[in-house]
Amino acid sequence: MNTTIPPVQKNEYYHVTFEDLTHDGAGVAKIDGYPIFVSGALPEEEANIKVIKVKKGYAIGRLIETYKESPYRVEAPCPIYKQCGGCQLQHLSYEGQLIAKRKQVQDVLERIGGLKDVPVHPVLGMSEPWRYRNKAQVPIGEREGGLVAGFYQQRTHEIIEMKECLIQQEKNDEVVQTVKAICEKYGVRAYDEPKHRGVLRHIMARYGLVTGEVMVVLVTKPAELPNKKEIIAEIAEQVPNVKSIVQNVNSKKTNVIFGDATNVLWGEEYIYDFIGDIKFAISARSFYQVNPEQTKVLYGKALEYAQLTGEENVIDAYCGIGTISLFLAQKAKKVYGVEIVPEAIEDAKRNATLNEINNVEFAVGEAEVVIPNWYKQGIKADTLVVDPPRKGCDDALLQTIIEMKPKRVVYVSCNPATLARDLKVLEGGGYKTVEVQPVDMFPQTTHCEAVALIELK
Ligand code: SAH
């Protein structure tokens, strides 16, 4: 491949075969190793494309004519799929999605991690890969005097009406529509983003899949909500199983959804849900996995890989609200969780108490600082679990792991590329990657989660 002159030219047509998908679901074709990204194309497809943008390292093309279709191509079931952008893979059958995600993990392990022979199991998918999200956060706009609940059309401030979202729990769609109608009845104006005025910015609905409990959150610009009493009374009456009505005030000119002030308007501060046997208290601002059914599968796998006998000290790095820590604590001697967000650690402690789990200890801080300190103080892990954000583990943490030498590391990853990079470091430090299990937490989207089992050689 010539690195200085791209092998394609703008406005020219090319016959290409697609081999891959990008993070946002575009097809990737290569000419002399130079990648061309084409929205709407799928692996295995052959097409005539027009190159519309040429950059040093890649080009963007447009599909002109497809000569050979992927056997996994389907009609996207959602009528607003293209405008919304929340899903990227509805035009690929679910079987095709699972194949693509497995291949993505295999490819980066080999390309970035230099790991050729590590078994990557078929992706554990959902039997019904729709209607799985337990949280809806819907922006509110106005049209012809009425309110619209929908989504921002990609790259605009325009709110397109959405009565249902096919990856959302039906319950949440109903709650949003009901609450919107009540607010409309009492003359609540929508927030106008460009003018920074109006009242109602977002309606959020949270649903406990196992308990059936519902939380409604109204995100408003001003602290006052007109006809507040009537609105609360009607929501309490009309939304089945509502346990909590909350207001969050966000008076800033920002596209961040939530502001700093959260007040309970009616009912409880929390709703509850279960993952496996463990009960979780979820507040308006708590982080909680959006696909609890698959979370159970993912964390079940992490627990299986940890192979605990009851004698182990375990460290759970990047522990969030302690979901994995509490799962592991049932089978370990002691679990130490560390997480950077103080509110998440408060939730983790609350959830430990709620489940009467006493062999856990949680600390606020950076994993790469706290764990080396623990190590200095003599706190060592027999098994170490990491579940970092997309950017992966900090190198200082990986070096501490290599020094500490836990027998087993279980790596839960939401980004196969950084997983592969980090596995390479651990392999260089005396570890071996035994196997990798991808789990589909976000059907219809390109997100890909995986759990890796790593053992000391
Ligand atoms: N295992 C968690 C989710 C992990 S998501 C659960 O089940 O709930 C990744 C988490 O890492 C987030 O909660 C994020 O706040 C936290 N985080 C990000 N950088 C961190 C760091 N340097 N040290 C510790 N935690 C960090």
Give your account of this protein's structure.
By secondary structure, this protein is of the alpha/beta class. Helix content is 26%, strand content 31%. It folds into 3 domains: 13-68, OB fold (Dihydrolipoamide Acetyltransferase, E2P); 102-127 and 291-456, Rossmann fold; 135-275, OB fold (Dihydrolipoamide Acetyltransferase, E2P). The chain has a 7-stranded mixed β-sheet with strand order 8-7-6-9-10-11-12, with helices on one face. The protein has a 7-stranded mixed β-sheet with strand order 17-16-15-18-19-21-20, sandwiched between helices. Helix 2 runs parallel beside helix 10 and helix 5 packs across helix 6. It binds S-adenosyl-L-homocysteine.
Record keyword descriptors for this entry:
457 residues, seven-stranded mixed sheet, alpha/beta, OB fold (Dihydrolipoamide Acetyltransferase, E2P), 31% strand
Strand tally, please?
21
Count of helical regions: 10
What would CATH call the homologous superfamily of the largest domain? Vaccinia Virus protein VP39
CATH architecture of the largest domain: 3-Layer(aba) Sandwich
User: Structural class, from helix and strand content?
Assistant: alpha/beta
Number of domains as seen in the coordinates: 3
Report the C-alpha radius of gyration, rounded: 24 Å
**Largest β sheet strand count, sense and barrel closure:** 7 strands, mixed
Morphology: globular
Kindly estimate the percentage of residues that lie in beta strands according to DSSP: 25-35%
- Which whole number gives the mean pLDDT? 96
**CATH class call of the largest domain:** Alpha Beta
Helical content stands at 25-40%
CATH topology of the largest domain: Rossmann fold
CA-CA gap between termini:
38 Å
